[in-house]
Design a protein that fits this description.
Number of domains: 2
Main location: membrane
Organism: Endozoicomonas montiporae CL-33
CATH superfamily of the largest domain: Outer membrane efflux proteins (OEP)
Radius of gyration: 39 Å
Largest sheet: 4 strands, antiparallel
Protein name: Outer membrane protein component LapE
Helix content: 55-70%
Family: Belongs to the outer membrane factor (OMF) (TC 1.B.17) family.
Shape: elongated
GO molecular function: efflux transmembrane transporter activity; porin activity
């Protein structure tokens, strides 16, 4: 077999020519794809002679002669377009996705809650002013001769109040809100990890489905070519009518496969648009360094329980509920306040004239009975602690389960991939062998079609496997809480995140 030219239009080497395959690989004659080639040639000023439907080898020479110019033109065309990497797609998602924005605003709200709790340590300063109408009838007004006389009292008061002791309620409230703030930060990281994995899934499915459409087009072209040959032989009385019926059925199936592949592609494009908030243009097949993965499942589980943000979030929630329980004890303790006030009144209590009053007061308040409400709230807080503890344990189990499933998928898909590759390579060799045997009259066109159909199915299976295998590795990294870290992606720079 002649050596493949270095400019062979191979999908893996030249994605711009995904619809054009070397005939020695798929046996699709160039006559079936000449509109695509002529479109490229016309666009870049390259002239091609007509393809002869009866001379496949001649058409191959035409393509080989024109391929370098077409490849250079395609490269120049591609240089002006920006291919979106997986990392860029994830970054765009975090900036624009509503779920990410909701989590960020939830975190921002928790920051304000901390500020509100911190305010409990500071004094309160109140200004009070009032004017009204008053008529008094008491011994003071009777003695002063102002009985039943109308007054227009005016009040002005400035009061400074500082709590000195509240049973540590303010302290525990501040500590609780601080823990909740840390928890919301970890929830934000968890949501970012989840969205990153979702984008990776859609990104890889989009690449896979684009490839599946290309394979389906090639498969349809093969069926149409063989259908024409069998139809010609049937018209000449050489082929059986049953052969024509069979190829018609398979041709219909090939067209249905292409429609299904396009439908899957459109679904992926829609999902990508929803997540990333921009249409999918050129995408780049991601590469993952295997060194970033743990050596075994046990190591992976240990790392996940230490590093996963969902674990950290559940720990903070438990700590916050414990501070909430401690806070309920303050209801059984007295409160002590220091109050400083200055009053400027006029015509107060039936006495005409200005009245000024300066007062400093140290007060203690101690509740003796509250209808059992304080005891009930303390018991409620105790149940909240146990609820948080149970949620913490559930989170740990969920992380372990997710990681075990992802690890099993990664191992099984990795083990399956070489066999699917072998099947694809063998089926491709079978197509070549059947083609030679057909030229010698030892194989029928239907035999050739069977081999090409098996090759098509093998390529589809392998395409799915390589994309799913890579996604399984991303799932493992997500199970560790390291997906964004390994992709060198941080939270958006405009997010105001307070370090713990």
């Amino acid at each position: 077999m002649a050596e493949t030219p270095e400019y062979c239009l191979d999908y893996d080497k030249n994605p711009a020519f995904a619809n054009i395959r070397h005939s020695e690989e798929t046996r699709i004659r160039l006559i079936d794809i000449q509109p695509d080639i002529r479109f490229m040639a016309k666009r870049f000023g390259t002239t091609l002679p007509s393809f002869d439907d009866s001379e496949e080898h001649a058409s191959m020479k035409i393509l080989r002669a024109s391929a370098p110019a077409l490849l250079v033109a395609a490269a120049l065309q591609g240089s002006g377009a920006h291919a979106v990497s997986l990392e860029e797609a994830i970054t765009q998602t975090l900036v624009s996705n509503p779920q990410a924005q909701a989590s960020y605003n939830r975190y921002q709200a928790s920051q304000e809650t901390v500020k509100a709790a911190r305010g409990g340590y500071l004094p309160t300063l109140d200004w009070k002013a009032g004017i009204g109408h008053e008529r008094l009838d008491n011994p003071i007004t009777e003695k002063a001769g102002t009985k039943d006389k109308d007054f227009r009292p005016k009040e002005n008061a400035l009061t400074l109040n500082q709590n000195l002791f509240d049973g540590l309620s303010t302290t525990n409230e501040y500590r609780k809100t601080k823990e909740l703030q840390h928890g919301r930060k970890e929830q934000l990281r968890t949501k970012a990890e989840s969205l990153a994995l979702e984008v990776a899934d859609v990104y890889l499915k989009l690449l896979e489905n684009r490839r599946q459409v290309t394979l389906s087009k090639n498969n349809l072209a093969s069926h149409e070519r063989i259908y024409k040959l069998i139809q010609q032989r049937s018209d000449q009385g050489v082929a059986n009518q049953s052969d024509l019926y069979q190829i018609e059925g398979r041709l219909a199936r090939a067209r249905a496969n292409l429609i299904s592949a396009r439908n899957n592609l459109e679904d992926s494009e829609t999902q990508y648009l929803r997540l990333v908030n921009q249409a999918a243009d050129d995408l780049i097949m991601p590469h993952l360094d295997e060194q970033t993965l743990p050596t075994d499942l046990e190591q992976a589980l240990t790392i996940a329980l230490q590093d996963h943000p969902a674990i950290h979030s559940s720990n903070y929630d438990l700590s916050a509920s414990q501070y909430g329980y401690d806070q309920t004890r303050s209801a059984f303790l007295p409160t002590v306040d220091l109050s400083l006030s200055q009053r400027w009144d006029k015509d107060i209590n039936g006495l005409k004239g200005r009245h000024e009053d300066t007062m400093a007061m140290l007060t203690m308040k101690y509740n003796l009975f509250h209808g059992g409400s304080d005891s009930a709230r303390r018991q409620e807080a105790a149940y909240r602690v146990e609820e948080s503890r149970a949620m913490q344990q559930d989170t740990q189990r969920m992380i372990k389960e997710t990681l075990r499933i992802a690890w099993a998928a990664m191992e099984n898909l990795s083990a399956e991939e070489p066999y699917l590759k072998k099947h694809m390579d063998s089926s491709a060799q079978t197509v070549k062998a059947y083609q030679k045997q057909f030229e010698l009259g030892k194989r029928t066109l239907l035999d050739l079609l069977d081999s090409e159909n098996e090759n098509f199915q093998a390529q589809r299976a392998y395409t799915t496997a390589i994309h799913r295998s890579l996604f399984a590795r991303y799932r493992v990294l997500n199970g560790l809480g390291h997906l964004m870290q390994q992709l060198n992606i941080g939270l958006p720079s405009n997010w105001q995140i307070v370090d713990s």
